[in-house]
Amino acid sequence: MEGFGRHFTFDGVIKDISLIEPERVRDFLNKCPDEIEMTKITLPSVYEIGGKVIGMVIIAESHISFHGNLNTGLINIDVFSCMFFSFKTAFDTAEKYFPCNRVKTNFIERGLEFVRT
After folding, report:
1. Using one digit for the tens of pLDDT, what is the confidence trace for 28-86?
2. pLDDT tens, 26-39?
3. Is the distance from CB of 62 to CB of 89 less than 8 angstroms?
4. pLDDT in tens, 83-112
5. Exposure class string for 20-35: b at 16+ Cβ within 10 A, else e
6. CA pair distance 100, 111, nearest whole angstrom
7. I want to staple 93 with a disulfide (CB 3.0 to 4.6 A). Which of 35, 43, 51, 99 is the partner?
């Protein structure tokens, strides 16, 4: 049965908090769509607010977002798409930019219980 796309979440505690910096997050969000064979339609927006770095890039298939806490080292990456993409490639790209001591991931095949028309 074919679903409506995929959703990948990556929650981790980063090994080096200094890697949670706006330019690195911007670079990740700029290159991740190509890595997972998606179509970037905006430049990444990245902000540092109140001890957190947050960012998002809009892709034709949906979005990729990043949240990082500069105090705790907790990061959250979300790849949401209406198309197929490689979970392994998404994980490898996140881990390359933001190596973590502990990681929890979720790989969700979306919409499997709905009939495509």
Report:
1. 999 999 999 999 999 999 999 999 999 999 999 999 999 999 999 999 999 999 888 99
2. 999 999 999 999 99
3. no
4. 889 999 999 999 999 999 999 999 988 766
5. beeebbbebbebbbeb
6. 30
7. 35
Quickly tell me which residue has 């949240």 as its tokens.
67
- How many other CB atoms are there within 10 angstroms of residue 75's CB atom? 24
Q: Report whether 94 contacts 105 (CB < 8 A).
A: no
Q: What DSSP letter does each residue of the chain carry, written as one string?
A: ---SEEEEEEEEEES-GGG--HHHHHHHHHHHHHHTT--B-S--EEEEETTEEEEEEEETTEEEEEEEETTT-EEEEEEEESS---HHHHHHHHHHHS-EEEEEEEEEEETTTS---
The DSSP bridge partners found for residue 8 are 79, 107
- The encoded tokens of residue 7 equal 């959703």
Written as one letter, the residue type at 75 is I
Write down the pTM of the prediction.
0.91
